[in-house]
Amino acid sequence: MNTIKFAIHYLIILIIMLFSPLSAQESINGKVTFQSSDVDLNKMFEWAKKQALAYAFKDDPVGLWYEAALPGREAFCMRDVSHQSMGAHVLGLELYTKNMLREFAKNISESKDWCSYWEINRYGLPARVDYSNEDAFWYNLPANFDVLDWIHDDSKFSSHAVSVIQSVNMLNVNQ
């Protein structure tokens, strides 16, 4: 398959995964399907779905999560979660995204000037590469707006965003 054909097929897969109207029942556990008269396109779609789901985990101390950080860190960062949440939704990983965003919300603290951890690992701890202590940690202000944008987009088709907002409000009241 030449490079142009591959690029066109890849773009079609992304468009389908991002904009296909699916009910929650259809997308649970990656059950989203795609059919084309092009056998190669069908194979690429199945490969992409399988590859994405291989990075979703449920038996770690942090709970449900998918890798959303630089490869190999076994972690998820605020900005990448926000950017990958729509594709995760199509794959049926809404509860994973919800759990990950709750992890960010519960780690907001006054000692970090009302910031959260930028990146959380599979153990529910801040990633060592980005965090030394409450005074020395990586923080990316635009990521807050990415999270807000996700909440806005997700609220159009799901109650999960409302639940995350309520969790953040409850955590801030309890601190």
Overview of this structure, please?
- By secondary structure, the chain is mainly alpha-helical.
- It has one domain (3-174).
- 52% of the residues lie in helices and 9% in strands.
- It contains seven helices and six strands, in the order αααβββααβββαα.
- The chain has a two-stranded antiparallel ribbon with strand order 1-2. A two-stranded antiparallel ribbon has the order 3-4.
- A hairpin with a 2-residue loop joins strand 5 and strand 6 (136-137).
Brief write-up:
By secondary structure, this protein is mostly helical. The chain is 52% helix and 9% strand. A hairpin with a 7-residue loop joins strand 1 (56-57) and strand 2 (65-66).
Provide tags for this entry.
7 helices, two-stranded antiparallel sheet, 175 residues, mainly alpha, disordered C terminus
What is the helix content?
A: 40-55%
How many DSSP-defined strands?
A: 6
The CA-CA distance between the termini, in Å, is 57 Å
Trace the largest sheet across and list its strands.
1-2
Query: Secondary-structure element sequence?
Result: HHHEEEHHEEEHH
Briefly note the structural class of the backbone.
Answer: mainly alpha
- The Cα radius of gyration reads 17 Å
Shape: elongated
Largest sheet: 2 strands, antiparallel
Q: Which runs of at least 5 residues are low in confidence (pLDDT < 50)?
A: 6-28, 164-175
The overall average pLDDT, rounded, is 74
* Number of helical segments with 4 or more residues: 7
Number of domains: 1
Strand % is 5-15%
